[in-house]
Write a structure and sequence with these properties.
This is BAAT/Acyl-CoA thioester hydrolase C-terminal domain-containing protein. By secondary structure, the chain is of the alpha/beta class. It is built from 11 helices and 35 strands. Strand 17 and strand 18 form a beta hairpin. The relative contact order is 0.08.
């Protein structure tokens, strides 16, 4: 398995991609034998399973408990391992599945992302973890011998739980913190934030843009006092411990951290074994690709450390010793029955056509005038004729297709109240529904395309006019941002709107969305696409805030570059953002840390086509958007899918819309005859 000890992320993955396998899906590989001349002599497809097929997965969803049981075949009783989730708070099946494949009953659960314990980690009550342990003890196939497993912050929680629950037989923690720490690694105890030291992020060191946090963690641990430390003396003497530390960890010093844990446990008379290995913080199950850093949801590049081959070998060694530890203190479970292996592995998607592949290459035809801007303000259906044409260019067959933007059962409700003009997309039923507000951008008018597709997923969606209609200001620079707040208050008053509200904004609409979340603490989630970092000034007048012109930097149009007559403005915007001051920046520090989960995305994820150029009437010039057709179109799919996952995670998954009957035969619009 030596080759698999050196697996790392390929260049095909996005910069800063974080690899996880929350669903414990198989990994597929193609192993090739390549000669010096780079010819492929032979190759074979391989599949790595994370879970034995004889294991049964049982979903738990009762009385505020949300988790997964991995149960071996047979009546039991079995020794049990509880996999404590790390700081992400979500169910991560990979580690649990591999433990279960050794014959243990394994239970893992969600702490806050899919539970009733709160919207984020700070809302979680540590006492609630005890409920999960009591639930496991009540299982008829649990032997009563229970061990805890925790990685990183999950290990800290495991150590804490051992000080509260006396009948834990074994605790295994990998790269775990010495204690809870503010502001990120803190939870509630008896209804109040647990007392702990504060992490000083000013001590972090950036190396090639990646953050090394060793100094900040070391300084926080140095300040530990009895009241901010774990109560090691409260742990039962019958509980055994295994501590694994990574020597190349970039979060904290693995050696010093592990020795601290060992010393505290020795002082209290506990049995503890320590293993220090050359690896980084992200020390996973065997043959999992090594990851030395990733782009965190906190919007910085966090370093894990470790060298690929050494870390890969350490995964094998550590995992073997983890199993020995649990078998020693929990008992050796029965071997699982063998299963029939596939004789030939077919890679997922191999030999299959992407049914939407043709639509990834859609672009303007030569019949469309140069500089035409594609939009679908009314979300009208798109019509296509799909033809099968051989080399002889004869049409063998063809079919008419129609793409809908709005579900037929979604009701559109027009809003006209004073100077407020908007449109509600309401799913069928009384609600309440999680709501998304589609914030208009520099054009100011209603664009149904985004709103219609968001409503397809069952969300209540509201979009509105910013300027240029009725009693509203005629131009963008006359608009007052106060009206956006009134639209948010209007949505909150709707009887079918839940208390979960998200904002969606593209380009300048994204900047406005980021501004609004600094003034509306009730916003739960924000998705912005390519938003400028701050407001900027084009003319002598600027957008208003409470009837006063906002302070912002002025765009220097002279820095724009013309390429074949198309204006590229990257330098102009870079110049603005480089000169930002506290007065001209958004007030990021005012965003609620408890409610809001902003997520910024990059790339042009439009719903129409990857448009690289368009004529701007206001500036009387051709504006460049950039992007390559196929890559941009694939990014549309991936980006949109992730937008929806994000909203469902933070707003809640709305009820699925009922299906509707499709037309058997499509008549092209304005055709008048069937084809």
């Amino acid at each position: 398995m030596g080759l698999f000890s050196s697996i790392q992320l390929s260049d095909d993955l996005p910069y800063g991609y974080f690899l996880s396998n929350n669903q414990a899906k198989p990994f597929y590989y193609t192993l090739k034998l390549i000669s010096d001349s780079e010819d492929t002599i032979d190759q074979v497809n391989l599949k790595k399973r994370f879970i034995n097929p004889t294991i049964t997965q049982i979903k738990v969803n009762q009385e505020g408990l949300h988790g997964i049981i991995f149960k071996p075949p047979g009546p039991g009783p079995f020794s049990c391992v509880i996999d404590i989730p790390p700081i992400t708070g979500i169910v991560m099946k990979a580690t649990s599945a591999v433990f279960a494949s050794e014959g243990f009953v394994v239970y893992t659960f969600a702490t806050y992302s899919k539970s009733e314990q709160g919207d984020n980690l700070h809302d979680v009550e540590l006492e609630d973890f005890s409920k999960h342990i009591e639930f496991v003890k009540s299982l008829p196939y649990c032997s009563g011998k229970i061990g805890l497993f925790g990685f990183s912050f999950g290990g800290t929680i495991a150590n804490y739980l051992a000080s509260k629950i006396s009948d834990i037989f074994a605790v295994l923690c990998v790269n775990s913190l010495q204690s809870f720490l503010k502001p990120a690694y803190v939870m509630k105890e008896n209804g109040k934030p647990i007392e702990c030291e504060r992490l000083d992020s000013s001590l972090d060191v950036k190396i090639n843009g990646v953050i090394n946090q060793k100094a900040s963690f070391a300084e926080a641990f140095r300040r530990l006092k009895p009241e901010t430390s774990l109560n090691w003396e409260h742990i039962s003497k019958s509980t055994s411990f295994r501590v694994v530390g990574a020597l190349d960890d970039w979060l904290f010093c693995g050696a010093a951290n592990s020795m601290y844990l060992r010393n505290r446990l020795h002082e209290t008379g506990h049995s503890v074994e320590v293993e220090l290995v050359p690896a980084g913080h992200f020390l996973s199950v065997p043959y999992f690709p090594h990851q030395s850093w990733a782009y965190s949801m906190l919007n910085f590049h966090v370093g894990f450390g470790g060298e690929c081959s050494l870390a890969g070998k350490s995964q094998e060694k550590v995992w073997e010793n983890n199993l020995k530890f649990y078998k020693k203190h929990l008992g050796t479970p029965p071997d699982l029955p063998d299963f029939e292996r596939e004789m030939k592995i077919v890679l997922p998607g191999a030999g299959k056509a992407d049914p939407m592949g043709l639509f990834l290459s859609i672009q303007f035809s030569d019949e469309v005038r140069y500089g035409h801007y594609a939009r679908n303000n009314q979300a009208d259906p798109f019509y296509y004729t799909l033809k099968l044409i051989p080399d002889s260019e004869e049409v063998l067959d063809q079919a008419n297709l129609r793409k809908l933007w709005i579900h037929p059962m979604v009701t559109q409700i027009e809003v006209a109240q004073g100077d407020m003009y908007g449109l509600i997309f309401k799913p069928p039923g009384p609600g309440p529904f999680p709501c998304i507000i589609d914030v208009p951008g520099a054009n100011g008018y209603i664009l149904k395309g985004y709103a219609g597709v968001l409503a397809l997923q069952g969300f209540l969606v509201y979009t509105f006019v910013g300027f240029g209609q009725g009693n509203l200001p005629k131009t963008l620079d006359e608009m007052d941002l106060e009206i956006f707040s009134r639209h948010i208050d209007f949505v909150k008053s709707l009887p079918y709107c839940s208390n979960k509200i998200g904002l969606f904004g593209s380009s300048f609409g994204g900047t406005i969305a980021n501004y609004l979340v600094t003034t509306h603490l009730e916003i739960t989630a924000v998705v912005t696409i390519n938003p400028p970092e701050a407001f900027y000034q084009v003319s002598d007048r600027m957008i208003k805030e409470n009837e006063k012109q906002m302070k912002c930097q002025r765009l220097d149009a002279s820095l724009a570059v013309l390429i074949n007559g198309v204006k590229r403005q990257r330098l102009s915007f870079y110049d603005i953002f480089r000169k930002l001051t506290p007065e001209t920046s958004l007030k990021w520090e005012k965003i609620s840390k408890n409610r809001t989960c902003p997520w910024w995305t990059s790339g042009i994820y439009t719903l129409l086509s990857p448009q690289s150029v368009a004529y701007n009437k206001y500036l009387e010039s051709f504006m460049g958007f950039g992007g390559e057709c196929f890559l941009a179109a694939k990014a549309q799919e991936i980006g949109w899918e992730n937008h929806l996952k994000f909203f469902m995670k933070h707003l809640g998954t709305p009820p699925r819309l009922p299906d509707f009957e499709r037309e058997k035969e499509i008549i092209l619009r304005d055709s008048g005859s069937k084809l």
